[in-house]
Structures are given as C-alpha cells and as structure tokens.
C-alpha cells in the first residue's frame, strides 16, 4: 500500500472545509464593521455550509453540521439547538436547490443563497422573539443579510476555482 504525497494532500484538502467550519464556530468569528453608524457583519458559517452542501455535498456531513450548531450555541451563549436548526434548514434548502437546478450559474446561486439566509435568519429571529422575548430589529437582520449575500460570489469563486472543487473531479 503506497501512500503518496498527492493522496495525503487530497485528504487534507477534503477535510479543510470541516476544519474551517469548526474554527469559525469555536472562535465565534464574525467579521463586522461599522458604516454610517450601522453594524454590518458577515456570517461565514452560512456561506461555508451553503456552498459545500450545494457544490460538494460529500465534504460536510449533516451530523458534523448539527454538532457545529451545538458548539456554536455553547460559544455564543444561545439556547442549545437554535443554531443546529438553522444550519440544518440551510442544508435542506441547499439540497433542494441542488436537486432542482439544471443550469449552474453564480447569479442563481447568489439569489437562492439570499432567499435561503433570509428564511433561516427569519426563523432564527422568530424563535428568539416568540420563545425568548428578544425584541426584533429589522435593521440588524438586513445589515447581516446583505453583506453575507454579497460575499457569496467572492468566496464561491475563491473556493471553487483554486482548491476545493478540482479535487472532487479527480476521484480516487
């Protein structure tokens, strides 16, 4: 059984999305900035989950995504299970989109990603309002959705062109 550097590199690259997802979840990394007294932030976890479930479904398993949601709840001090529901709903939307789309287009992916994160974020805010009595702020919802949606094409081009998706085509 000969192990080459190429197979080791392929296995490391295949596990890289999982490592990135757990790094972001464990550190609570959320890039945010202020622009005209409004806080804009990117939700990288949504980007990673949607992209890899849509483009390369063998990379992230649903159990790993569920566990990432539980870890995110602990780190962010949310009630246990809220993030897991959000992440799995995002996975379900990505799987539905993958099964229905016949033409692959970055524009369609971005529009569907916006609809998916709008649905997931609305569910998240609805649960927080109805169950926990947290006041909803629509400005916060929109200021998180738009930058995340605008980051999707950039990260999609970066992840699909260089590293992650060419490895999938060279199947073992």
List the helices and strands and how they pair.
Layout: H1 5-27, E1 32-35, E2 38-41, H2 44-55, H3 62-76, H4 82-100, H5 106-132, H6 138-169
Antiparallel strand pairs: 1-2
Helix pairs in contact: 1-2, 1-3, 1-6, 2-4, 2-6, 3-4, 4-5, 5-6
Overview of the structural elements:
- It is a single chain.
- The chain has 172 residues and is mainly alpha-helical.
- The protein has a single domain (16-31, 39-169), classed as Arp2/3 complex 21 kDa subunit ARPC3 (Orthogonal Bundle).
- Helix content is 74%, strand content 5%.
- The protein starts with a helix and ends with a helix.
- Mean pLDDT is 77; it is low at 166-172.
Proportion of residues in extended strands: under 5%
Whole-number total of structural domains: 1
CATH architectural name? Orthogonal Bundle
- Tally of helical runs: 6
Tertiary shape: globular
- Please estimate the helix content: over 70%
CATH topology, by name, is Arp2/3 complex 21 kDa subunit ARPC3
What's the mean pLDDT score?
Answer: 77
What strand order characterises the main sheet?
1-2
Number of strands: 2
Low-confidence stretches at least 5 residues in length (pLDDT < 50)? 166-172
